[in-house]
């Protein structure tokens, strides 16, 4: 079984209790562990894989809370860095018009320093670059570039999820697109939402979007489509793989469950060649990952709702 290094942010989401009020009026908040790469590491560990989280949190009670959650889920946290800067926080509420009201207080996550020792252990393993905050700057962004390079020289399987957040890139979409390109070029697998595929390719048709993004470089593309399943595009073939029918209560973390489950399956295969892998096998793997995403929507919260191996197989 290969190790899956998930690099990027762990943060606290403070979610306003009362929907329908904007943040200026919100009074009570629920504290939740979050951050896409941290969620993906949990998804892998809950499925019995080797999820390793590499990120920076504050040496404060919120950082301790995040590490306790990750440890509880079986994630390897030995490479986590601690900072004197406060743990990154996000405050979220649903305003009356249905729009998300969002305040982001970026702290320790940006301070992740490139780890020379980690480089030695990368060979033959899986690198997942999926931070929503990585391209916003800081030493985390520099580390991302270096790990991408290491992934290439150390014969790793590289996975990229741009995790676009409109709130963070409001008037700077072009900058975001430009910064994503080297990652799309060099990664073996890219996971996009429909909106991300459209934004990054400039095409509204998702099939055409995949063609454009393959031309940039990546070999396997999955475009997650919520209840409709996932468009798989690889080896010149495209197919929408349907999801299972569920009654969703909270879709947070479905995308992380999906990519976590897919990477866990790849980690269990002895040899996995993104260029020549059998399309039928990829279909089966995506169908299983769809199931993991679907199950996650049936429970509240991201990490708590991620399925275990038994739940996925039930
Ligand atoms: P995120 O917002 O977490 O980044 P995302 O937009 O990438 O996520 P989704 O498309 O919402 O992810 O979900 C990922 C996968 O989970 C989908 O491709 C699908 O297979 C499954 N899924 C999500 N929502 C549902 C649903 N309502 N019914 C069935 N399956 C679902």
Automatic annotation (TrEMBL):
Listed GO MF terms: kinase activity
Entries under PROSITE patterns matching the protein: PFKB_KINASES_1 (PS00583)
Disulfide bond in keyword set: no
Protein name, UniProt field: Carbohydrate kinase
Family note: Belongs to the carbohydrate kinase PfkB family.
Keyword Kinase: yes
InterPro entries linked to this entry: Carboh/pur_kinase_PfkB_CS, PfkB_Carbo_kinase, PfkB_dom, Ribokinase-like
Protein keywords: Kinase, Transferase
Pfam family, one: PfkB
